Amino acid sequence: MLSPLSRVLLSLLTLPLAFLANGAFAATPNVLIFTATTGFRHDSIPVAVEALQQQAERANVNWTHTEDSSHFNDGALEAYDGVVFLSASGEVFNDQQKAAFQSWLNKGGNFVGIHSATDCLLKTDFYRREIGAYFDYHPDIQEASVNVIDPGHPSTDHLPRPWIVRDEWYNFKSDPRDVGAVVILSADENSYEDNGPRNPAQGTPHPTAWFQERGAGVEEGQTAGRSFYTSLGHLNETWQDETFMTHVLGGLSWALQSNTTRAFNASGVVGAIGDPSDTTASGDSTSQTESETETSLTEVANPSSDTTTTDDGAESSAAHSTVSAAVGLFTILNALHLVHREL
Q1: What is the pLDDT of residue 224?
Q2: What domains are defined for the chain?
């Protein structure tokens, strides 16, 4: 039989496990959705933002949405585990913002690109390597077959084979495999019409979605996060399709689990700290209001709402931590009770 002291020690040793089991040391990842455009602007952007907002709990993330490029500074980016370029297009950054974005990637930030994200920052080499390839052209919107090359990836393991999708079928100026990307979906070129001059440099099979275990757009020797890209997502109806949403959320979930940010790694230097919507406190050079420049996902879905997705996530995280603390306190009190009973 264990002595009272031994029981106390054993109970206290289980305290860290109780905290870990209840997530006291795990933070909900902060993810920035960026939808700025200086090129073509997709009508589906508001629908896509709302669709992601509705999946906040399922995705287990704190969303923040912005179209303000000045958010890309070292202080503001530090709070994010992931950045999603959602149909962003054109030259959306100045040199300082590009440098801040690359620095964040170098420190372990995770990146997700969707649809026209490959038609963004076309003069920025590190971004080309991070996204994998640049957009070339697309034929008319039509239905086509998508082949699942890697059925084991979280973004593809649920997909039918083949997956029939109506969307824009992007062609690219280069092959993402040339920068180390792993193509997981390919368009069946025999299943749709494309009379354009396909660039053979994009490789075979036709890349449609891919990932990089280590973002290619960062400097050698740095701690880099993951990169995921899907070329789908042009139409409003696409963002209302459960199969597509599971594809996108699977890619995001995979990217966030890179173990390079604070949400999953105590030694991470970016991610999951403070209130990501507080751009002034985090180093933004210009103070902005939510109504002017940074719109939360909840506001996109319901402009009259005063509750942001970021705040909801913070409340959920705080409640989660409270439960964890209660479990830890119960463990300590139970240990003390054992001592009192047996002494």
Answers
A1: 85
A2: 30-306 (3.40.50.880)
